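Protocol step 4 of 5: obtain the predicted structure for the target chain.
Materials: sequence only (see below). No template structures provided, no constraints applied. The aim of this step is simply to have a reference model before the mutagenesis design in step 5. Sequence pasted as it appears in the construct record:
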Amino acid sequence: MVLAAAGAVALSACGSDSQGGTTNSASTGGASASSAATNCATGDLKGAGSTFQKNIVAQWIKDFGAACSGATIDYQGVGSGAGITQFGANTIDFAGSDSVMKPDEQAAADKRCGARAIHLPITAGGIAIMYKLSSVKDLQLSPATIAGIFQGTIKKWDDPAVKADNPGVSLPSTGITAVHRSDSSGTTSVFSKFVNATASASWKLGEGKELKWPASIQGAKGSDGVSQAVAGSDGAVTYAEVSYATASGLGVAKVKNGAGEYAALDGASVGKALEGATLPASGNDLQVKYDFANTTPGAYPITALSYEIVCSKGTPPAKLALLKAFLTYDVTTGQSAADGLGFAPLPQTIADKVKTAIDGLA
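Step 4 output (structure tokens):
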């Protein structure tokens, strides 16, 4: 099933409270939805996982809480791997992840649920190559150059490979400090799949939520951690969801796509990247497949879909109504918050399938 493209929406700055380590329920302030338009339920939910989706989940919790008194929702941005582990251990009600579960993780989640644990795509966005380089305001990078930077083989910003990507640009001899996620990260999984698919001749680290990074590549925990590390060091570079770059005042590189263009990261380019994505023909485990090397003009190649992992069956009755109400809000009214927070609205075809899957939770 081929998906329709997301709308062309410009990405802009995220809210001032977007980088907090903990996202708690809120019952005041700035709700974009009214209680008349929101299917409310009472109770409490706990979620944890992806830092990629943390900023938009914070907004959804704030707005849903303002519309629905009696609902308490907490989301901890601890990284996709830790969230999946907590879900399998039955300590949270849903997990956020930017990659699908590995077989052992799926088995643990299924055991916890007593049924199939499923992936529901909940938001889309781009993973930015964000940098701090005081003398360079516009930077372009090809997949092979990105691979060299994050393997430590390209060590200075005036390396011939970086120059080739940026003709006519005066690049300093500043040393490159590449920063990776030190925790088990779905963002790392997406990033590594991208370079593995588009620069396989150069990339030697494989793919996954955790990699064996060279000693010269620094580590920091979470998207906020890597962003802060880059913000504090001229010449540094990392990968994270784009709102972290906006909040930290970092530059965002254009990335060469399969059409040979250096694409800027915005809502339109994320939508273009998802044009050829496919969903399963049947079932409610909505694992989306798309090609990082697709040749669609205008596509931003390091595009990610972030999932909520839930039980298809087996959620306790005291939690089920609120879980369904909150997820329904997220995939419908909540999508209107995407562009203002550095995300892209889900393609309508995905949103419709997710809504149907949510309706079927039991």
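Step 4 remarks: The chain has a mean pLDDT of 89. Residues 317-331 form the longest helix (15 residues).
Proceed to step 5.
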